[in-house]
Automatic annotation (TrEMBL):
Residues 18-235 form the PPM-type phosphatase domain. It comes from the Bacteria. InterPro entries: PPM-type-like_dom_sf, PPM-type_phosphatase-like_dom. Pfam families: PP2C_2. Gene3D superfamilies: PPM-type phosphatase domain (3.60.40.10). This is PPM-type phosphatase domain-containing protein.
Length: 254
């Protein structure tokens, strides 16, 4: 189940929907998305489990929960680290996720590779943000002046339907970190590759600006329960019509 909450000026919301390819075969949704906000801090994280792996729905949940906890506990330290030595926070984030996956694999009595998933996150505190992205999916950013930009593009493997995962041996070189500053009027939208079929134009690598702007406007004006319902409805009635894959989305606005 997706999680979301609201604190102070932050608005966070999440939703996911099981794609036709999984619903038709009785498979669970392999996407997971969650948000946390408290004490002047907010983050949203999303992961898309590898379709070919038996337990990837557990993997996506595990890495999302692990990274949101880490960011809550150590945001200031990681943000500062990212300026002087980007490889250090990258490695610490991955190691934290891999340790959580190792515990999960022991519990499930499976190989850790069976928990493979992508990872996307954005955390914000005191006018600063730290974002990370490994695999496909996409992160969009609304700047304070209202402009919508792609913060992080999808990364696919040799073929369009392949990508990279937290459990890969090359993960440390694939996890991209973004560090910056933004305040009131800014926002972020994270999505799995299923949702990206509607909100990211692969042909020219640009965002679906009007739709993204509308989502962020809803985030700032609707109550949390209403926002979750709106996101869920759009995933089911619009976005899921353009793909057979699972769809998930996470929104953080200020």
């Amino acid at each position: 189940m997706a999680e979301g909450d609201r604190s102070h000026a932050y608005r966070t919301s999440c939703a996911l929907f099981t794609g036709r390819s999984h619903a038709g075969s009785g498979m669970p949704c392999q996407d997971y998305v969650a948000a946390r906000s408290q004490n002047g801090f907010a983050c949203v994280a999303l992961a898309d489990g590898a379709g070919s792996k038996k337990h990837s729905e557990h993997g996506s949940r595990t890495v999302v929960k692990a990274v949101t906890r880490l960011l809550l506990d150590r945001f200031d330290e990681l943000w500062t680290m990212a300026e002087t030595n980007p490889s250090q926070p990258t490695n610490e984030i991955l190691q934290h996720c891999l340790q959580a996956l190792e515990r999960q694999a022991i519990g499930l009595r499976c190989d850790m590779a069976e928990l493979a998933s992508t990872l996307l996150f954005v955390a914000h505190s005191k006018g600063r943000y730290l974002a990370g992205h490994l695999g496909d999916g996409c992160i969009l950013h609304q700047q304070e002046d209202g402009q919508i930009m792609v913060l992080s593009h999808p990364e696919n493997g040799e073929f369009a339907n392949t990508t990279f995962f937290v459990t890969d041996s090359t993960a440390s070189s694939r996890l991209r970190l973004y560090r910056g500053q933004c305040g009131e009027g800014a926002g972020f939208v994270l999505m799995s590759d299923g949702t990206a079929e509607s909100l990211y134009r692969r042909l020219d690598k640009t965002p679906a600006t009007a739709a993204v702007r509308q989502i962020l406007s809803w985030s700032r004006t609707k109550e949390p329960a209403q926002m979750r319902e709106v996101l869920s409805d759009n995933l089911e009635l619009a976005f899921a019509k353009k793909t057979t894959d699972d769809c998930s989305i996470g929104v953080l606005s200020m």
